[in-house]
Amino acid sequence: MALFKWDDSLTFHIGNIDRQHQQLIQTITKLEKAMRKGESRAVMSEIFNELNVFLTEHFQTEENLFDSIPYPDAANHKEKHRDFIRKVDRFMQEFEEEKIGLAVDVMNFMCDWVVNHIKSVDRGYADIIARRQTEG
Ligand SMILES: [Fe+2]
Ligand SMILES: [Fe+2]
After folding, report:
1. What does the pLDDT look like over 78-129, one tens digit per residue?
2. CA-to-CA distance for 62 and 101, rounded, in angstroms?
3. CA proximity to 120, closest of 69, 76, 70
4. Is the pTM of this model over 0.85?
5. Mean of pLDDT values over 60-81
6. DSSP assignments along the chain, one per residue
7. Which ligand is nearest to the CA of 125?
8. Ligand 2 centroid from CA 114, angstroms
9. How many angstroms does the Cα of residue 7 sit away from the middle of ligand 2?
10. Half-sphere exposure (CA, 13 Å, Cβ side) for 21?
11. Which ligand is nearest to the CA of 115?
């Protein structure tokens, strides 16, 4: 997998959202590097748990933020978060039960999901907030 590089198209300049998004991508990258280096399951599992914690924190921060503004896509957006958390939980569980090693396609899926979600779905509330700021 080509490591994903953060670029300005992903930056919203809203509170700590950018920092959290970067943290998510960094953690996925860290997991991917650990996998390629053949780190132990304990190390992998620690990073995986970290990712889960950051995801939960971030989704909560984001949902609190968009619930505070008129945002018509809120319910649908929350459902997308829940769905991704369920998938990541399942990947983690399968990894812990040693049914699977951490497959490259799982890594790719998680990285692509986060990047595409920021670019398309998160962009929606970010644009509304930006518009409200310029309208004062
Ligand atoms: Fe987000
Ligand atoms: Fe989101």
Report:
1. 999 999 999 999 999 988 887 666 678 888 999 999 999 999 999 999 999 9
2. 31
3. 76
4. yes
5. 97
6. -PPP---GGG----TTHHHHHHHHHHHHHHHHHHHHTT--HHHHHHHHHHHHHHHHHHHHHHHHHHHTS--TTHHHHHHHHHHHHHHHHHHHHHHHTTSS---HHHHHHHHHHHHHIIIIIIHHHHHHHHHHHHH-
7. 2
8. 9
9. 18
10. 26
11. 1
Q: Which CATH number fits domain 13-135: 3.30.70.2740, 3.30.365.10, 1.20.120.50, 1.10.10.60?
A: 1.20.120.50
| Cβ atoms 74, 51 nearer than 8 A | no
- Burial classification of residue 24, based on how many CB atoms lie within 10 Å of its CB (0-12 exposed, 13-18 middle, 19 or more buried): buried
Place of tokens 């809120």: 74
Of 34, 32, 38, nearest in space to 112 by CA: 32
For residue 21, report the distance from its CA to the centre of ligand 1, in Å.
6
Give CA separation, 46 vs 10, 92, 105, in Å. Answer: 27, 11, 20
